[in-house]
Amino acid sequence: MSVFDYSVFGLRVRSSLQLPELFPAEGEGSPDLTIDTGPVPPSDLADDALRAEDGALLLDIPKVARFRVSGGNLITVDADRNIPERNVRTYLLGSAFGALLHQRGLLPLHANAVEIDGHAVAFMGKSGEGKSTLAALFHDRGFRILADDVCVVKFLDDGRPYALPGLARLRLWQDALEASGRETSCYERSYADDETWNKFDVPIDANARAGSEIELAGLYDLQRSEEFRIDETKGVDAAEAVFAHTYRGSYVTAAKGERNHWQSCVRLVRSTPVFRLSRPSDLGRMTEIFDRIPEHVRAHVFGATQRAGS
C-alpha cells in the first residue's frame, strides 16, 4: 500500500490517503502523525459532536465518514461507501484535525494568517466574517499566506508565540471568488456533488505560501459594522476573544485540555496585541478597506510587539 508524506501545522504527516490540499514533506523523517483507514464505530451524537472513548476522540459525520483520533499522533478514517474523497478530506482536514490539535495541546484559532514584513499577523472571525476573502486580497497583492481558516499557534520556551503553516489552499464563497476576479468554472467545490455548497477551493502555490513558522506579531478580530474602524482590545476581553475564536473550541473538554487552553489564550494576549477590526460587509468596499490594514499593522502592531518584548 502506498503512503504519502506531507507537512502541515508544523507536523510531518504520513498518510495512506492522498491529501492534495497539503504540501509534500521535505527530506526524510519519522512522522508526527499517521493517517490510516480502519473500522470506527458509529455514534448517535449530533453531527460534528465529539465523544471520548478509551482515551481516543471519536467523530461521526453521517453519510461521510467516522474518525478516531488517538494519542495526538494517529487518525483512523472509516469512510462510507461511494463518498467522494474530497468530502472525506473536508472533514478529515477540518474537524478531525481540530480534535488532533487539541490533543497535542496546540492552540488552533479560527483565523487566517499572513506574512507582513517578515511577521505573522492573524485575522480571527466566525464563519462568514470574511477571513478567506481578506486572505485572498493579501494573496493577490503579493503577500505570502501562512494559513487560511485555521491558524495554529505554538509557544517557544521563552514564551514567544509562532504561527504554523497550514493548508495549501484558500476556501472562498462564490460571491467572494467572483469579486476577486476568478471564474467558478476554474475551481472545484469544497464539497463535491452538492450544488448548494457554494464554497470553492483555490490552491496556493509554494511561492505564495510562507512555508515555515513565523513569530505571531498581532491579532485582529473581524466584526461587521456600518463603518470601518480598528480598536485595541486588552486584558480579559482580549483573552476572551481568542477563547471565542478557538477552532473547534467545543472539543477542548473532550480532549481534557481546558486548563491548558485557557492558559494558552492568556499567554498569547500577554505578548501579542489584539485589535477589533470593524468593517462593512459590502464586498465592493473590501479593496478600499484592505489598503488601510497593512498601514495599521506597521504603525500599531510591530511597535506594540517590540515594546512587549523589551
Textual characterization of the structure:
By secondary structure, this protein is an alpha+beta fold. The protein has 2 domains: 4-103, no CATH class; 107-309, P-loop containing nucleotide triphosphate hydrolases (Rossmann fold), CATH 3.40.50. 26% of the residues lie in helices and 33% in strands. The strands form 3 sheets. Strands 3-1-2-4-8-7-6-5 form an 8-stranded mixed beta sheet, covered by helices on one side. A 5-stranded mixed β-barrel has the order 9-10-17-13-12, surrounded by 4 helices. It is globular. 44% of the residues are buried.
Entry summary:
This protein has 2 domains: 4-103, no CATH class; 107-309, Rossmann fold (3-Layer(aba) Sandwich), CATH 3.40.50.300. It is 26% helix and 33% strand.
Q: Which radius of gyration do the C-alpha atoms yield? A: 19 Å
User: Which regions have little confidence, pLDDT < 50, spanning 5+ residues?
Assistant: none
The geometry reads as: globular
Alpha-beta content class: alpha+beta
